[in-house]
Amino acid sequence: MKRTGLTLTLLVAAPLLVATTVQPVFAQRTITEEKKTTTVTPSGTTTETEIVVKQAPPPPREEAMPAPPSPSQTWVPGYWTWNNNWEWHAGHFEQPPQPSMSWEPGRWTERGEEWVWRPGHWR
User: Fold this and answer.
1) 39-49 burial, b if ≥16 CB within 10 A, otherwise e?
2) For residue 102, what are the domain limits?
3) How many CB atoms lie under 10 A from the CB of residue 60?
């Protein structure tokens, strides 16, 4: 009985651990100029972040893609982010969560007088 109770406790606590682990990563990208919205799904596996700023981002940088470290890795292109100033995050290779998944790059879109960041994600 004790072993079952312990397992049940871990299963119940696991989603809470995922949610609290995901949020601090996006907290580093707090936008002081405007606003930020973060949504965590009930499963805790998908997070959407909307970052809104008043300045248009610079044009994307041209990046030379090196050879992949392994054939199963996917190139994730670099992007601009806002942290009281525009900062470039260089592209890199990542292992897809599942072999059939592909990377949908993040993008800045204009919305009236604002620019909104939609982060990249696996699909």
Assistant:
1) ebeeebeebeb
2) 2-122
3) 15
